[in-house]
């Protein structure tokens, strides 16, 4: 497996020399937030939408990715005339704090050291810290109220944290395929991912840069395992079934134990190896940990409705029938928590066999839901 | 919008908070928002209708009368509306209690099982009556708790609900002329429409 560290390029960003106080108490300074924008901010600065990316996403939402050359991860949703219409809205997407696509994260040089990266010493960040870092950019852009905050999976957690922490700044919120807290099962999956990274001989206690190496195999296994949880049995069956092919890398011939590989194995290996070319292992640890700690009710005796009491934000929750990572039952918990807060809630479960990743894929009912919710909310917000 | 929905809308003061249980295609919600400036939200059991409503920009959540009302706080709404659904819920009395807990008023419409055609058919044929309103056979009907207008009034009395307005309407929703007499309404009204509040409110 490719052991070269991912290429680092310059990303458009804002630098905040004073940094910010993290929830853990640590003062992180400076803080850099890499971001991309699409569309035009209106003169009244009232048409801004923040799109929050998921665990391994980044700010390259609707354009060719400068590192991978692949299309933006939500290019089918965000653009002129698309459900999140950039002819109408000003869309901002920011790399999360702790990430590795230009925002401050474990791969950056620590300010108190001789140019050495943070690595595993990077302070633990939370979903709320990520949102507070995004707020720095929004303030710098002179935007006092976001028309909407939208995101799926971990992006959905950020949407909820935006609405809970800065209720007056969020007119409409669309948390998709997410949950009011990270479930024990999901923490368990994250733990397997992390153990795969720790078990890689190239891990070197998290200081792999000293050896000029990356724990590529561990990170790839982590990605392969996680990728299964993003799909569904039906989707895997539809895409791969039990089809086999000759393994081009196995010299022993077709009759040996692993001379042939199932197509699903080949697909996962490809997912793993392309992931390590763009993602940093320490970022993966930092961000998965932030997800694990996410619990809206944590500061409220376990009641996820309390942060939303008195909220005026319009919510639209979306879940997908075949998503077993963030199942509809968790979205329903969230819907009921918002009901207890008498919040304005729409809640749709979209019929799909594509699993958790359905929110990234072609689902016409989902597109209609996003478009309709936004235009309904725009009418209430009285924006063009 | 159906005519009986217009009668419901006429009972609702402008600018109020409304929950429509069983909001269907969202016609009433849309009307209340556009013409009355209401903060109108819906609950709907049919996911296709939910998706269509949200895609039209209406705030509707998937849920049903029996299971989802308990999660709302007291008096979260000025009006809670239940259209043509009371006879199909699992626990009608509990649903009414929840409606009048979370709302200051309840607006309930239901098909009247006391209509003369039903009485006559049961008497003359000895079989479960089928009419344009009650049109599914007994083994298929979702209407597991049919009641008459008199039955409903008795329940309101037992539960201590004040009937602020009532009317009997025919199937297309035209207001019927026998609105002065409950007994005549119970005989000739195809649908009943009630505006309730709790005693002491």
UniProtKB/TrEMBL annotation, chain A:
<feature type="binding site">
    <location>
        <position position="357"/>
    </location>
    <ligand>
        <name>substrate</name>
    </ligand>
</feature>
<dbReference type="GO" id="GO:0009086">
    <property type="term" value="P:methionine biosynthetic process"/>
</dbReference>
<keyword id="KW-0808">Transferase</keyword>
<dbReference type="Pfam" id="PF00561">
    <property type="entry name" value="Abhydrolase_1"/>
</dbReference>
<dbReference type="InterPro" id="IPR029058">
    <property type="entry name" value="AB_hydrolase_fold"/>
</dbReference>
<comment type="subunit">
    <text>Homodimer.</text>
</comment>
<feature type="active site" description="Nucleophile">
    <location>
        <position position="153"/>
    </location>
</feature>
<feature type="active site">
    <location>
        <position position="323"/>
    </location>
</feature>
<comment type="function">
    <text>Transfers an acetyl group from acetyl-CoA to L-homoserine, forming acetyl-L-homoserine.</text>
</comment>
<protein>
    <recommendedName>
        <fullName>Homoserine O-acetyltransferase</fullName>
        <ecNumber>2.3.1.31</ecNumber>
    </recommendedName>
</protein>
<feature type="active site">
    <location>
        <position position="356"/>
    </location>
</feature>
<comment type="pathway">
    <text>Amino-acid biosynthesis; L-methionine biosynthesis via de novo pathway; O-acetyl-L-homoserine from L-homoserine: step 1/1.</text>
</comment>
<feature type="domain" description="AB hydrolase-1">
    <location>
        <begin position="47"/>
        <end position="361"/>
    </location>
</feature>
<dbReference type="InterPro" id="IPR000073">
    <property type="entry name" value="AB_hydrolase_1"/>
</dbReference>
<keyword id="KW-0963">Cytoplasm</keyword>
<dbReference type="GO" id="GO:0005737">
    <property type="term" value="C:cytoplasm"/>
</dbReference>
<dbReference type="GO" id="GO:0009092">
    <property type="term" value="P:homoserine metabolic process"/>
</dbReference>
<keyword id="KW-0012">Acyltransferase</keyword>
<dbReference type="InterPro" id="IPR008220">
    <property type="entry name" value="HAT_MetX-like"/>
</dbReference>
<feature type="binding site">
    <location>
        <position position="223"/>
    </location>
    <ligand>
        <name>substrate</name>
    </ligand>
</feature>
<dbReference type="GO" id="GO:0004414">
    <property type="term" value="F:homoserine O-acetyltransferase activity"/>
</dbReference>
<keyword id="KW-0028">Amino-acid biosynthesis</keyword>
From TrEMBL, chain B:
<protein>
    <submittedName>
        <fullName>Methionine biosynthesis protein MetW</fullName>
    </submittedName>
</protein>
<dbReference type="Pfam" id="PF07021">
    <property type="entry name" value="MetW"/>
</dbReference>
<dbReference type="InterPro" id="IPR010743">
    <property type="entry name" value="Methionine_synth_MetW"/>
</dbReference>
<dbReference type="InterPro" id="IPR029063">
    <property type="entry name" value="SAM-dependent_MTases_sf"/>
</dbReference>
């Amino acid at each position: 497996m490719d052991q070269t560290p991912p290429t680092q390029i310059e990303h458009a960003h804002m630098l905040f020399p004073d940094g910010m106080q993290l929830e853990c108490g640590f003062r992180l300074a400076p803080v850099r937030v890499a971001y991309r924008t699409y569309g035009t901010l209106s003169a009244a600065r009232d048409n801004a939408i923040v799109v929050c990316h998921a665990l391994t996403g980044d700010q390259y939402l609707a354009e060719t990715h400068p590192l991978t050359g692949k299309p933006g991860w939500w290019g089918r949703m965000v653009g002129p005339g698309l459900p999140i219409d950039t002819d109408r809205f000003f869309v901002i997407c920011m790399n999360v704090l702790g990430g590795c696509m230009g925002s401050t994260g474990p791969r950056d040089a620590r300010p108190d050291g001789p140019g050495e990266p943070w690595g595993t010493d990077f302070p633990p960040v939370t979903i709320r810290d990520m949102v507070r870092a995004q707020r720095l950019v929004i303030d710098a852009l002179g935007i006092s109220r976001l028309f909407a905050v939208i995101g799926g999976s971990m992006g959905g957690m950020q949407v909820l944290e935006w609405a809970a922490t800065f209720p007056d700044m969020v007119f409409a919120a669309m948390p998709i395929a997410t949950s009011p807290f990270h479930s024990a099962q999901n923490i368990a999956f994250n733990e397997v991912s992390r153990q795969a990274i720790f078990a890689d001989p190239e891990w070197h206690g998290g200081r792999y840069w000293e050896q000029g190496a990356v724990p590529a195999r561990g990170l790839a296994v982590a990605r392969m395992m996680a990728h299964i949880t993003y799909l569904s049995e039906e989707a895997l069956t539809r895409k791969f079934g039990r089809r086999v092919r000759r393994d081009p890398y196995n010299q022993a011939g077709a009759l040996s134990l692993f001379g042939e590989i199932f197509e699903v194995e080949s697909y996962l290996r490809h997912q793993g190896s392309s992931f390590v070319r763009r993602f940093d292992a320490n970022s993966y640890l930092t961000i998965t940990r932030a997800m694990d700690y996410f619990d809206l009710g944590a500061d409220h005796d376990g009641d996820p409705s309390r942060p939303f009491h008195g909220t005026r934000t319009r919510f639209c929750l979306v879940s997908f029938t075949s998503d077993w990572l963030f199942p509809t039952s968790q979205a329903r918990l969230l819907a009921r928590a918002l009901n207890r807060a008498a919040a304005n809630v729409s809640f749709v479960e979209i019929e799909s066999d594509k699993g958790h990743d359905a929110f990234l894929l072609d689902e016409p009912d989902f597109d209609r839901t996003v478009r309709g919710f936004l235009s309904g909310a725009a009418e209430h917000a009285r924006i063009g | 919008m159906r005519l009986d929905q217009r009668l419901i809308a006429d009972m609702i003061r402008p600018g109020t908070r409304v929950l429509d249980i069983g909001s269907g295609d969202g016609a009433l919600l849309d009307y209340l928002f556009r013409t009355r400036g209401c903060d109108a939200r819906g609950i709907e059991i049919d996911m296709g209708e939910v998706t269509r409503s949200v895609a039209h920009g209406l705030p509707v959540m998937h849920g049903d009368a029996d299971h989802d009302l308990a999660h709302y706080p007291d008096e979260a709404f000025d009006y809670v509306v239940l259209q043509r659904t009371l006879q199909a819920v699992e626990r009608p009395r509990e649903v009414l209690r929840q409606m009048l807990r979370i709302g200051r008023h309840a607006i309930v419409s239901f098909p009247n099982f006391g209509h003369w055609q039903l009485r006559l058919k049961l008497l003359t044929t000895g079989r479960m009556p089928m009419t344009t309103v009650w049109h599914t056979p007994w083994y298929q009907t979702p209407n597991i708790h049919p009641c008459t207008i008199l039955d409903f009034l008795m329940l309101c009395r037992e539960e201590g609900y004040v009937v602020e307005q009532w009317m009997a309407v025919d199937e297309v929703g035209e207001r019927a002329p026998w609105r002065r007499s409950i007994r005549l309404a119970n005989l000739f009204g195809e649908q009943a429409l009630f505006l309730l509040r709790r005693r002491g409110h």
